[in-house]
Protein 1
Amino acid sequence: MKLLVINGPNLNMLGIREPDHYGKETYADLVSKIKSYCEHKSVSVELYQSNHEGDLVDAIQKAYGVFDGIVINPGAYTHTSIAILDAVKSVNIPTVEVHISKVEEREEFRQISYIRLACVKTITGHGTDGYLEAIDFLTENK
Ligand code: DQA
């Protein structure tokens, strides 16, 4: 089982940005948490972060034929990007949408998720543990 974990814009600012919403763990903390969790589960994992929509589309396209599952937190592109939705639909790889914060209890503009239409599951509001839950889901439902 080979998983790709993708983080979108501003997730590299974890630990600095709005700790009330996103907590105090840094992006580096998140990377090592995911890597050690996957190592313990004997799951192969790669991580990718970009602030650029087209680069996220490229990363999803390149996953075709390489990865068995994708965990993605598209950040603000969740609420705007049909291109990322279409990329996930194109590759047809089981994909779980993760949000660190409880987006459903925040601003109205965060209530729209385009990518959700192509995802097998959505996890919100569980902090960075949500990524581990997504990994569990993909490994248990392969
Ligand atoms: C987020 C929620 C989004 O609304 C926001 O733009 C982010 C992070 C989350 O993880 O809770 O960048 O995806």
Protein 2
Amino acid sequence: MKASRDVVSSRPDLFTGALNVSRIRDDFPILKRKVHGKPLIYLDNAATAQKPQQVVDALVRFYSEYNSNIHRGVHLLSSEATEAFEEARAKVKRFVNAREISEIIFVRGATEAINLVAQSYGRQHVRAGDEIVISAMEHHSNIVPWQILCEEKGARLRVVPINDRGEFLMEEYEKLLNSRTRLVSVAHVSNALGSILPVAEIIDAAHRRNVPVLIDGAQAAPHMRLDVQLLDCDFYALSGHKLFGPTGVGILYGKWDLLDEMPPYQGGGDMISSVTFERTIYNTLPFKFEAGTPHIAGGIGLGAAIDYLNGVGLENIAAYEQELLGYATDSLSAIPRVRIIGTAREKASLVSFTVDGVHPHDIGTVLDQEGIAIRTGHHCAQPVMDRFRIPATARASFAFYNTREEIGALLRGVHKVIELFN
Ligand code: PLP
């Protein structure tokens, strides 16, 4: 971290609790750019988060100083790259508090992590007539891989309903669990509604019936401290790019015993210990699931992002973002014609909303002209839109570098939308 961090901010509005947001913002070069002549206000963090200079520097250092393929090389560059990549794995292990480093598998993102489990664990264990349980607020990447599996196996997808606030209905879930249930796979945080699911209880209820649970943590990991051992989840998926790291890299955590028994997901280099035309012996964990050259720079960049997050402090981030969420929720809901979609009692820092009589894409376009980046659409969660009988929402999602001032600009932008579409 930069030495200038010791300087106390001259802007008290940006100094909140244990976070000095002004200094944090200096670490994110993109936040200095302008959009349509206005300062960028980036409120699309649930889609992808911005990267601190420390992550950019780690990528530049890798490519300019020790770019090399890993694991098989005897030369210095290869051992440096291998060491850095494996060190990043160790950082992830500590970040999620896994028991073993071999429980951390590098993948392309949360999507690939879920597909890996569906194609490997799922194909091994799911038979005709079996059931897989998901919730009604899943991202498409936690729906479609299970549909593909169910179609192939003649199995059935069961969906836990949500209430009008966008909360997971625990009682309905318990009713769906039965002797045919082979796996439960739910989001930790809904990307469309912001709801935090009661994952500890969900896992507990499934485990009482010996059913393993996958948690899709793509939207949770950037906002709260994770502890996969405490949660006792069987699999946990996350995306590096939502965690202030590079795109194209993510993590599947899995309990060692489960991973060890699962067949490989893809075949190729690195996932084998020996190959003849007659027989291939697979590599040990985690390499059994890492066929081919991985995203080496991405893994190292993700390690740098984790260092950065540890420096800021997940508890500080969570507390600050809850303040931003409260402010945005109260102020947006006070605006006539604005309806907030997703009012769960436990929420992460995003607000989905509609403005009566205005298509969300128009909201996004007007705000873009003000330099404000939000996301509009179905957020890859079309069943959620159907549940609320709307085609789309506008979604503002906050990170720890966002400020109350920026939310103030969002509010002015929404007022402008209402004036324009009166
Ligand atoms: N799960 C959730 C809840 C998400 O929000 C997303 C992305 O928005 C994903 C999974 C998929 O993540 P990725 O596209 O990084 O694989």
